[in-house]
Design a protein that fits this description.
Distance between the termini: 70 Å
Structural class: alpha/beta
Number of strands: 26
Strand content: 15-25%
Length: about 625
C-alpha cells in the first residue's frame, strides 16, 4: 500500500502553529523513541528521582509530591504482591477520580499487573459484568466504596482497602522486571453483543502515545494538566501519563460532582497550562465564561473524542489568548491518537467541518473501500490506521480482534486497525472525519454501540421492538433517541423505561428521549428505515408523574432553565430531572444557571438530591432564608 504524501506547505504551516504551544520557560526535553522501550514504572521512577519535591497530583482533597506519590504507589504494589504472585493478571480499581486512584494505578503497574478501572457511578450490573469478564483477582477500593465492593460477587476476590494500607510501612520500589509489551490496562467500551468489550493496551503503546503528545505540545515539568475524564476512558490515559512521565502536575477534577460553574476559577488559581476534554464538555465550559476571565498560564486546549465544530473554534478565539493553541485530535481506545490539527487565532476554517488534520509520528492513515482496497485523495472511505503501536486486541475476544485488526500484507511489525469511521483525505494530506460507517456513535465523547442499548430495551417484557438513533439537539450535540414498539397499549412510561435501563447501563448510554410507536418504518427491502423515524420534538415525555404547572416565581424560573437545557416545551414542578432526559453534563449546565440567577452556591449533587423543580425551589428558598 502506498502512503499518501503529506510533506507540503499546509503540513509545514501546521508545525509552525504547533511551535506556538512550546512552553515559554524553554525547559522542554524531547521524548526520544528509545525511551518508549521501557515500562511506565521505570520512566516514572526516573522522574521521581529528578523531581521528588515537585507537585505530582493536586485535587480538592489531596496534594502529593512525586516522592509522596511514589511511596504511596509502592505500598499499594506491595499490598497487591502480598495477596498474589508476580503474574501479569488484572486488578480492578473501584475508586473516584482523585489522588488515591492515581496512586492505585501506579501501584498496579509497579506490581506488574493490569489495571481495570471501575466507575463507582456505573450500574452495579455493569460493574459485576466487567469484574467477571476481566477475571480480576483483586479489587482495590476505599472506605467510601467498600459497601459497594461487598455488594458485588466478590467471594472469589481479594479486597484491598487503600485507606487502610499502613502509611508508616517502608515503601521502596518493587523493582520488578516489566517488559514494554506487557499489558497495562483493560478499558471497557460499549459492545455490539449487548455487553461492554475490553480493549487492552501495553506499556510500549502508551509511552509511544505520550512521546508524540509530549513532543507535539512540548510538555515539561512546569506544566499543569487538568484531568476531567474518568480513568475508565482512554482520554484519561493521555493526561495521566502525559503528566507523570514528564514531571508535570496532574490536576484531577470530578466535574460530575463539582460541575463546570467554577472550573475557570479553579484553573486560573491552579495555573493550569493544558486543558483537555471532549468537545461537549468544552462547549459547556465556555458557556460558563463571561469574557472577563484571563487565563495567563493556559497555552493548550486539546479537544478530542468527538466532532469539533466551527463554533468551538470561534469560542476558543473569543475567550482565550493568542498565546493559547487549540488542537482537534482524532484517535480511539484501540489506536490512541493518529491525527491532529493545530489551530491559532489566525486559522480560518473554510467549511462547516473542522479537519482532524495531519499525521502523528508512526501512525499512518489509510482510506479503504468495502473490499479493503486503498483509496486516493478526495475519495470517501473507511479510516484505517497502520502502525506497530496498535492495541494487542480485545480481552478474551480473539474473533473480534481478528475481525478489526489485520497484519500488514507488506510484512514487518505493523498491523492495520479498521476504525469504522469514514473520512476523506484532501490533496494536501489533511484528513476530514465524516462520521461513523456503522451504528456506533459518540455521545459526550463516549463511543457507544447502539445495539447494546437496543438489546437492553428488547430484554424488557413490555417491549416488542426497539431502535436507538443519534439526533442533534438544538446546540448541535448528538443525543440518543429510543423508538420503541410496546407489546400492548398504552405501553410503558418513560419513567419505567429509564429505571429499567439504569440498572444495566451508565448514564451516558441512557437515551435522552423515548418515542412509543405502533410500528417501526421499513424501507422497500423490509429493513428498518432509520431515516424515516419521526423527530421527537420538544414535547414533555410521558412520565409517571402528571404535569403540574409552576406556582411561584422561583419554580417558574427553574422550570424555564430546565426546559431550555433539556430542549423541552414545558417542565412540571414534580418532574424528575433524570426522567426528563437529564444527565450529569446537563445537570452541570442547570446548576451553573441557577448559581448565576440566584447568586448562591449549590454543588451539582444538589440537583440529584432534589431532582424536581419543587424540591430544588425549596432548597433555594431555604438558602435565601439563611442568608
Amino acid at each position: 500500500m502506498s502512503q499518501l504524501s503529506e510533506h507540503n506547505d499546509a503540513y509545514h504551516r501546521q508545525h509552525a502553529i504547533g511551535s506556538k504551544s512550546f512552553h515559554p520557560c524553554d525547559s522542554f526535553t524531547e521524548f526520544t523513541p528509545e525511551e518508549v522501550e521501557q515500562s511506565i514504572p521505570s520512566r516514572f521512577e526516573r522522574i521521581v528521582s529528578q523531581y521528588p519535591n515537585r507537585i505530582a497530583v493536586k485535587t480538592r482533597n489531596h496534594t502529593l509530591t512525586y516522592d509522596e506519590l511514589n511511596r504511596r504507589s509502592n505500598r499499594v504494589a506491595r499490598a497487591i504482591l502480598a495477596q498474589c504472585g508476580e503474574d501479569n493478571e488484572p486488578v480492578a480499581l473501584l475508586l473516584e477520580n482523585d489522588a488515591p486512584m492515581i496512586a492505585a494505578i501506579l501501584g498496579v503497574l509497579k506490581a506488574g499487573k493490569i489495571y481495570v478501572p471501575l466507575d463507582p457511578l456505573y450500574p452495579q450490573a455493569r460493574i459485576a459484568y466487567i469484574l467477571a469478564d476481566s477475571q480480576a483477582a483483586i479489587v482495590l477500593t476505599n472506605t467510601r466504596n467498600l459497601p459497594l465492593a461487598h455488594e458485588l460477587d466478590t467471594h472469589r476476590l481479594h479486597l484491598i482497602n487503600v485507606d487502610e494500607i499502613d502509611s508508616n510501612h517502608p515503601a521502596p520500589n518493587p523493582n520488578l522486571e516489566i517488559l514494554p509489551d506487557s499489558p497495562i490496562n483493560i478499558l471497557y467500551t460499549s459492545g455490539s453483543t449487548g455487553n461492554p468489550k475490553g480493549v487492552v493496551q501495553n506499556h510500549r503503546n502508551v509511552l509511544h502515545e505520550i512521546m508524540n503528545y509530549t513532543n507535539g505540545v512540548h510538555i515539561c515539568a512546569q506544566d499543569r494538566l487538568v484531568l476531567l475524564s474518568s480513568p475508565s476512558f482512554a482520554d484519561a490515559v493521555r493526561t495521566v501519563y502525559g503528566s507523570l512521565v514528564n514531571g508535570a502536575g496532574l490536576y484531577p477534577l470530578d466535574i460530575r460532582q463539582e460541575g463546570l460553574a467554577h472550573l475557570a476559577d479553579w484553573m486560573i488559581q491552579q495555573g493550569v497550562t493544558i486543558y483537555r476534554s471532549v468537545p461537549a464538555i468544552f462547549r459547556h465550559f465556555v458557556s460558563t465564561l463571561t469574557g472577563n476571565e484571563k487565563f495567563p498560564d493556559l497555552r493548550v486546549i486539546y479537544s478530542a473524542g468527538d466532532s469539533v465544530s466551527k463554533v468551538d473554534v470561534e469560542s476558543y478565539k473569543q475567550y482565550f489568548s493568542p498565546n493559547c493553541v487549540f488542537i482537534n485530535g482524532l484517535g480511539s481506545t484501540e489506536s490512541l491518537t493518529f491525527r491532529w490539527y493545530f489551530i491559532d487565532q489566525e486559522t480560518q476554517i473554510s467549511g462547516s467541518r473542522v479537519p482532524v488534520g495531519y499525521a502523528v509520528e508512526d501512525m499512518q492513515v489509510l482510506l479503504l473501500d468495502n473490499d479493503g482496497q486503498e483509496l486516493g485523495f478526495n475519495q470517501i472511505g473507511e479510516i484505517a490506521v497502520k502502525s506497530r503501536y496498535l492495541s494487542p486486541g480485545y480481552w478474551r475476544k480473539p474473533e473480534l480482534t481478528q475481525a478489526v485488526f489485520s497484519l500488514d500484507l507488506v510484512g514487518g511489525s505493523e498491523r492495520i486497525y479498521r476504525t469504522g469511521d469514514v473520512g476523506r483525505m484532501l490533496s494536501d494530506g489533511c484528513l476530514e472525519h465524516l462520521g461513523r460507517k456503522d451504528f456506533q456513535v459518540k455521545i459526550r465523547g463516549h463511543r457507544i454501540e447502539v445495539s447494546e442499548i437496543e438489546m437492553a430495551l428488547m430484554d424488557l417484557d413490555a417491549i416488542k421492538e426497539a431502535v436507538v438513533v443519534p439526533r442533534e439537539d438544538e446546540s448541535g450535540d448528538p443525543r440518543l433517541v429510543a423508538y420503541v414498539v410496546p407489546r400492548k397499549r398504552p405501553g410503558p412510561t418513560v419513567t419505567s423505561l429509564r429505571h429499567a435501563l439504569r440498572k444495566r447501563l451508565p448514564d451516558y448510554m441512557i437515551p435522552s428521549a423515548f418515542m412509543l410507536l405502533d410500528g417501526l418504518p421499513l424501507s422497500p427491502n423490509r429493513k428498518i428505515d432509520r431515516k424515516g423515524l419521526p423527530d421527537p420534538g420538544r414535547s414533555r415525555p410521558k412520565l409517571d408523574a402528571p404535569y403540574v404547572a409552576p406556582m411561584t416565581s422561583i419554580e417558574e424560573t427553574l422550570a424555564e432553565i430546565w426546559a431550555e437545557v433539556l430542549s423541552l416545551d414545558e417542565v412540571g414542578v414534580n418532574d424528575d430531572f433524570l426522567e426528563l432526559g437529564g444527565h450529569s453534563l446537563a445537570a452541570s449546565q442547570v446548576i451553573s444557571r441557577v448559581i448565576e440567577k440566584f447568586q448562591l452556591y449549590l454543588p451539582v449533587q444538589s440537583l440529584f438530591q432534589a431532582p424536581t423543580v419543587a424540591e430544588m425551589a425549596a432548597v433555594i428558598e431555604e438558602s435565601q432564608a439563611k442568608s
